[in-house]
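Researcher: If convenient, please comment on what follows.
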Amino acid sequence: MFIERKRRLDGSFVDFECERLLVEPGRRAVLRYVIPSQRRLEGTDLTLLPGTVTIAHYWADRSYNAYAWYRDGAALGYYCSIADATEIAEGRVEYLDLAVDVLIDVRGSATVLDEDELPADLAPGHRRTINRTLEDVTSGTKRLIAEIERESRPFL
């Protein structure tokens, strides 16, 4: 098993056991995770059912991670988690979750989520990373979907 460690701004963290699909230490990783129980995405009308397959993409040189969700081989949507300090090593991926996320539907429409979770005392550097990444992700959704699909499909 491979560990994804999501560190939060408050210092806490959560680990997920994933299946390793592709790992290039220090560069990028692709992992697989099967959702064990129903999960509703707050602020959206999307509910992920048990058995939904997540193909997760991590890059050391990008300030986000991307998750593609599939049910019976069909894409349900894409989720970008804005992150900092992503480390990719043998056996684990670790990153600082900057709280803000972007849900992209299969047509390329983007919805920004969780901005209300940002602490008032957020470091200016993190705020700049969030703003820059939101612009990058939301202005290039179709290109990002094409990349994620190209990288995910061989693993379905």
